[in-house]
Design brief:
mainly alpha, single chain, 0% strand, elongated
């Protein structure tokens, strides 16, 4: 039973007792209105689920193929979609407006990212991007998105996210804590000096700096540091006690030297200390010329200015590097002629002295970092061996390099320990790395194949939508493929990017082709409008509607055009159609009124068969009705007219033998038609040809004259016979359909048995005689398996007969002995 037989399908879907049969019927119904009615009436849950699934597929198909502005019907369908269906349609719907509507309220990050990357419509991709919140997805979009504007926007969003991670208050707090810690360490070392007077000036400077740091801490809402206040108090007591204690008048040279070293600022870590104590007189050859001296002074002053511009609140590592560079540059300029630059060197030392504490802290901080890195690398070396350990080890190595300055002796102490752990990690992952390299070679082959496919698509003509879908699949495959060997990474990436760019250059050609197609479709619709306008003035009420039906079918098949132009053309087409059908309706309304007038005339006629004038009026009315027969049909008016007409014919036949003879002749002819119909029904051969014969009898009956008063009775009997035939014919048709299915299953099973027999014959598990015997049995069973439709019979017979023949000939090339 075909899907076009809607009434029969609905009857089965509503009334069949077998739920499985109802399911099959439901699956062939494509009308959503009928399906919704069935869903309301259906009680079986399994059938309800089938109806819901058919409705779901209908919605998806309708929404997917929708083009142009979104109708209220489409909006309602979108609201009823399940989340998984929305995901599918976001990637496959043809309409930009539909995809934008689907994005409303949609928040699944992975799908949004995929839409932002793959959708070629900028508005859709940007809308999807605006809903993406995860940083890793935005990073993917900025690299892989099809639209340039989307990649640019994603880059801006990614940069904003990165910047937002920085907390300025936290940075200030950390910096303040580091300064306080460095100042505390320096003050602690000074407090250990046996001569408190020698370090009193430096301690007072540190105290003033500590007060400034406490003020900054209060601004940030932090507690003041109490440890350094205790150190200052202890130092002041030591100074007072030292002053109150009598001191020897003279000091030994060693004591003088100790005090001098204690009072002197510590040397910079990246340079050698400049010896300030020089003999007052120098040899003439050690002095620079005045010209050379004056040339170097501005360079040295520039170094001092550069140091003065450094911000104490900046990054410690950066400050330390800049100060060390300043000492290096100074030494390069001055060389061995240090004495002549003694005065400006004091200015340089004064500029760098403010960073002394910071550099001491930086050195201590670097020691702490590297101590922790040594522990971490040793733990990693003893951890379970996985490939990720290599990346972690390299990350630790980078942290080691970035930890900052340390004295050379400390480096010599720390580095061998760290290096031992690093080597142990690298040795442990070496076998895994080799396996990874093999996997990377496989990944390289996969990515080369992907590039080749994209390059082929870039130069191959085809349906743009299909090719774009294929490209998106290849992009997803690329993304899911692992790393390639490092040496090939740049090369394969460049090839991939070039292939992708080449493909999307085709988009312009595609747009041009689409534009041409749209122009062709517009021209086709304009032609249909012209044809409709030409038909709008037609008065061929019978054939012109058929012409309009044909034009409507061509209109539906003319292809999509932009909504604005489509609406204008549709209004033009409908206007021409409306003009014709309004005129046609007006015409038939007039015909109906004329028929009613004729009915009134014949009903009001006081017929007298003996009155020639009355007979003439009757015949005139009959002619008027006959002239209206081809101008529309009304069952009500026909019955009304012929009821009166048959009564007059009967009355006329009593007075006129010729009329009586004509009525009798018609009665006998109609009885003959009824006898033919009864014979057809008695034969019980309800085939298509039988139906055609019955249709011909109906046409013959309509053309035949009437029988007067007996017409009503004989027509009722004829209609009963017709209805009985049609009912039996439809029942037989359904029986034949079911029987065809059963017979088809039998023949399908015989085909399988014949194919199995062929396989056994080819394997020589049977002898020739056994094969021939079984083939005969199968052919006999085929004859008894009944009839199926001619088309299916040809297919199944070809399959069955081919297998049987091949089985019988399987032994043709085998010698009798071998057999």
């Amino acid at each position: 039973m075909g899907p076009t037989d809607l009434d029969a399908l609905l009857d089965i879907a509503k009334n069949d007792e077998d739920a499985e049969i109802r399911k099959l019927a439901v699956q062939k119904i494509s009308s959503p209105w009928h399906l919704n009615d069935l869903l309301k009436a259906e009680q079986d849950t399994s059938v309800q689920n089938v109806i819901k699934e058919v409705l779901r597929k209908y919605r998806i198909k309708t929404i997917k193929n929708s083009i142009g502005a979104i109708s209220q019907e489409i909006l309602k369908m979108i609201e009823e979609l399940q989340p998984k269906d929305k995901e599918e349609l976001l990637l496959s719907a043809k309409s930009t407006e539909v995809r934008l509507e689907l994005l409303k309220g949609f928040d699944k990050q992975g799908v949004l990212a995929q839409v932002a990357k793959s959708d070629s419509q900028e508005s859709v991709a940007l809308t999807a991007l605006a809903k993406v919140e995860r940083e890793n997805l935005i990073e993917e979009i900025k690299n892989d998105a099809v639209c340039d504007s989307v990649r640019k926007k994603a880059k801006e969003m990614f940069a904003t996210m990165q910047a937002s991670k920085t907390d300025p208050v936290k940075e200030k707090t950390d910096l303040l804590f580091q300064k306080q810690k460095a100042l505390l360490a320096h003050a602690t070392r000074l407090a250990e000096n046996k001569n408190p007077l020698s370090v009193d000036a430096e301690m007072q400077r540190l105290y003033a700096e500590s007060e400034n740091l406490n003020k900054e801490a209060s601004t940030l809402g932090l507690q003041n540091q109490t440890e350094i206040s205790a150190i200052f108090a202890k130092h002041n007591e030591a100074v007072k006690a030292y002053r109150d204690t009598p001191q020897p008048s003279q000091q030994t040279p060693i004591e003088e030297k100790t005090e001098t070293v204690a009072e002197a600022p510590p040397p910079e870590p990246a340079t050698e200390p400049v010896k300030e104590a020089q003999p007052e007189e120098q040899k003439e050859e050690d002095k620079l010329s005045e010209e050379e001296y004056n040339a170097k002074l501005p360079l040295l002053q520039a170094i001092i200015d550069r140091v003065n511009e450094l911000d104490e609140n900046g990054d410690f590592n950066e400050i330390s590097q800049n100060v060390r560079q300043a000492f290096y540059d100074w030494k390069e300029i001055v060389g061995e002629k240090k004495t002549q630059f003694k005065n400006i060197y004091k200015e340089f030392r004064s500029a760098t002295s403010r960073f002394q504490n910071l550099q001491e802290w930086a050195s201590w901080h670097a020691e702490q970092i590297r101590e922790q890195l040594i522990k971490d690398i040793e733990e990693l070396a003893n951890a379970p061996v996985v490939l990720e350990n290599r990346a972690k080890a390299f990350a630790m190595l980078e942290q080691w390099k970035a930890a900052g300055y340390m004295p050379a002796l400390k480096i010599q102490e720390f580095w061998p320990r760290f290096k031992a752990g690093l080597d142990k990690v690298m040795d442990s992952v070496a076998p895994l790395l080799k396996e990874q390299e093999q996997g990377q070679e496989e990944n390289l082959k996969i990515k080369e194949d992907i590039c080749a496919q994209i390059e082929e698509l870039a130069i191959t003509d085809g349906e743009w939508a299909d090719q774009l879908k294929k490209i998106q699949e290849l992009q997803a495959k690329w993304k899911n493929t692992g790393f390639v060997p490092k040496a090939q990474n740049h090369v394969i990436w460049e090839r991939y990017q070039n292939a992708i760019n080449s493909f999307f250059k085709k988009q312009e050609a595609h747009k041009k082709r689409i534009s041409e197609q749209i122009n062709e479709r517009i021209a086709a619709r304009e032609k249909l409008c012209e044809e409709a306008e030409a038909l709008s003035n037609s008065t061929d009420w019978r054939n012109t509607p058929k012409a309009f039906t044909k034009l409507s079918a061509e209109w539906k098949a003319a292809g999509s055009v932009p909504a604005e132009q489509y609406e204008k053309l549709l209004q033009r087409f409908k206007k021409a159609s409306d003009i014709f059908f309004e005129k046609r309706n007006a015409y038939f309304e007039n015909v109906r009124k004329t028929r009613e007038e004729v009915c009134i005339k014949i009903e009001s006629l006081e017929f007298d068969a003996s009155n020639t004038e009355s007979v003439a009026q009757w015949k005139k009315i009959e002619e008027e009705w006959k002239a209206l027969e081809n101008n529309g049909y009304s069952k009500e008016l026909n019955e009304r007219f012929f009821a009166a007409s048959d009564r007059i014919w009967e009355a006329a036949s009593k007075a006129n033998p010729e009329i009586a003879k004509e009525l009798d002749k018609n009665w006998e002819a109609k009885h003959g038609i009824m006898d033919q119909l009864k014979n057809i029904m008695d034969q019980e051969t309800f085939k298509y040809k039988t139906m055609q014969n019955v249709r011909n009898l109906q046409i013959e009956w309509e053309k035949m004259g009437r029988c007067g008063a007996a017409e009503a009775e004989i027509s009722a009997k004829f209609n009963d016979l017709i209805n009985s035939f049609l009912s039996t014919y439809n029942d037989q048709k359904e029986i034949r359909s079911n029987l065809d299915k059963i017979n088809a299953q039998k023949k399908e099973e015989l085909c399988k048995q014949a194919e199995e027999l062929l396989a056994r014959a080819q394997n020589q598990s049977l002898t020739r005689a056994e094969v021939i015997s079984e083939t005969g049995s199968l052919r006999a069973a085929w004859k008894d398996s009944g009839n199926v439709s001619m088309h299916l019979a040809k297919i199944l017979w070809k399959r069955f007969n081919g297998a049987c023949n091949a089985a019988c000939h399987a032994f043709d090339d085998i010698a009798p002995a071998a057999e």
